[in-house]
Task: structure prediction
Amino acid sequence: MIAIRDMSKWFGEFQVLKDITLSIPEGERLVICGPSGSGKSTLIRCMNGLERHQAGQIEIAGTPISEDGKGLAKIRKSTGMVFQQFNLYPHLSILENCVLAPMWVHKIARKQAEATALEYLERVNIAAQANKYPHQLSGGQQQRAAIARTLCIGPKIMLFDEPTSALDPEMIKEVLDVMVDLAAEQITMICVTHEMGFARRVADRVVFMDRGEIVEAAAPDAFFDDPQSPRSKAFLAKVFSH
Ligand SMILES: Nc1ncnc2c1ncn2[C@@H]1O[C@H](COP(=O)(O)OP(=O)(O)O)[C@@H](O)[C@H]1O
Ligand SMILES: [Mg+2]
Result:
């Protein structure tokens, strides 16, 4: 589903991603972890063209991400992204947030778009909040709304960038529960997270990044029980000391 080969990216002089090679088969649930500043967000933002890479190739379902705007539009249509800060439109109700892209990008009629939106809002347990505005919801509810909004476009790929990091502890579980539920589907899921319990339970593979490189990629049990690189060991020791 996603093929990245020898991909590098710079911000000015600073090389943020170094020779990344990573293949993600359809339906895989991949967790990316690593210290802050290691390039995790930049890597997944490159996967839907929110950031452009300068060397190497990225292909999404056979479509290369290049300067060609057409390929990018196609990729964005089938790729959903969930951000740490929810990024709901504040001036639109939850329902309107959910029907916007289906109606304007995917050209779905309002009635159908609303029916689909309500279905997904039901699924993440906030159908009762459909007519409220984002600021009237808790952080956990907003993030679940953001996930529902993403599902409304029928994505083949879901990218999550630390979806629970901005949440109070008591809300983390309600969002993770929704993500665990989602993981049962055939959507390809790439999730930057430090929720190691989630990673162990749901991930097919864990990728550990440090300083712009993929240092280790392994099945969760292997990664957590027997990390190979000194850098992964140091990282895991820190994460589990909290
Ligand atoms: N738009 C940008 N311009 C310049 N530097 C950036 C930009 N975005 C991120 N960086 C830098 O790139 C590095 C990796 O950032 P990021 O991908 O956000 O890491 P992570 O998500 O792992 O914390 C950091 O050093 C960060 O400061
Ligand atoms: Mg980040």
Notes: The longest strand covers residues 14-24. The chain has a mean pLDDT of 94.
